[in-house]
Amino acid sequence: MSAAEMRRLFLLDPEVVFLNHGSFGACPAAVFETYQTWQLRLERQPVAFLDPDRGYAAWMADTRQALAADIGAAPDDVVGAVNATHALNLVARSLPLAEGDEILTTDHEYAALDKTWRFVAARSGARIVTCEVPLPLHDPAAFTDTLIGAMTDRTRVLFVSHITSPTALCFPIEAAVAEARRRGIWTVIDGAHTPGHIDLDVTAVGADFYAGNCHKWMMAPKGAAFLHARQAHQPMLQPLVISHGWDPDRAAPGPFGGTAFVDAMEMQGTRDPSAWLSVPAALEFRRAHDWPALSATCAAQARAASERVARMTGLPPLAAPALTAPQMVALPVPRCDPHWLKRALLERYRIEVPVFDWKENTIVRLSVQCYNSDEDIDLLCGALSDLLSLPAAA
Question: Which of 217, 290, 303, 351 has the most CB atoms around its CB within 10 Å?
Fold first, then answer.
């Protein structure tokens, strides 16, 4: 299907050129209809809906099973969450850190999670060690060697993104995760941008804790995410809300039908689980539309756009294509006021795309999804040329 045909399957404003799928995703109309069907079912008979014995526990389990099959996990090692930040807060605030412990991370992490670890460090006395990833990044070994070289006998946590938010890099995390686990370091991975974006096998990644969003590249409704935890470490995790499902002393299965880990995280009283229950519909939408082929087209568009903007600006990409997220790319542009540029792109050209400063760089972060056409990319490049007085580049 063409980009125009795919766009008609989404609910996006037709007056806006939407090049910002990476921030909050976009939900296909068919998946959104499933979401609303679940919501209507909840409102028609809320007592029956939220009763674990009358369907709720089984529906939650169905989603865990469908998602687990897609990400290479065991269903009992996955729980639903509102978003990846929520899931990672749960992990960070559960780990028994003490004064003098070190939390090793990189300078490419999502700002909200930087704040999470600062909060945890302030309360525990642990210290954050931020590792500077060498740029431009052309060799996976440069990333791995830098992280491993920063590990010490005080390192208790390795926290790193799989796909980074500000720089859209796809880190080759497996070797560093394996070395950290060998040293007894807890490994915590921010996979907010990963599910539905690249092939994900959380078992192969090998991290102790892995959180991902389903509302971004998997295209489920907002409020659908997951936390995967290795079985050995599940008992140390405490939900951010203690409610009906929490009973650390019981043997599984419990009264809600799940493991102690699953029930503690998912059985939390009155809430609307419709976004989570719609994840199987999002997975089915992808299967029905030959997603590998569509993703490959989007990846080619994103790479071409990166090369084109680099020719226009004379600024090189932040990493080699193999180390860049397939459908999301950070485009360095000449230094300017990012708020002005973002506003000008939207107001003058109707382009929705994030623009921000990262370290000493002004970044336009382009996301390419199935509904984006070559004309959309042309419009962005032309707008950047006009606004920043850059030479045009075909």
Answer: 217
- The structure's pTM equals 0.96
Return the amino acid letter for 117: W
Question: CA separation (Å) from 35 to 25, 79, 268, 275, 295?
Answer: 15, 19, 20, 6, 24
Q: Tell me the mean pLDDT in the region 350-361.
A: 96
pLDDT at 256 over 70: no
Residue type, 82: V
Residues forming beta bridges with residue 191, ordered by sequence position:
212
Domain boundaries, the chain: 3-28+290-388, 32-285
Is residue 244 within 8 Å of residue 264, measured between CB atoms? no
Which numeric CATH code is attached to 3-28+290-388? 3.90.1150.10
Buried b (16+ CB within 10 A) or exposed e, 78-98: bbbbbbbbebbbbbbbbbebe
Amino acid identity at 100: G
With CA atoms as reference, report the closest residue to 328 among 175, 216, 201, 176. 216
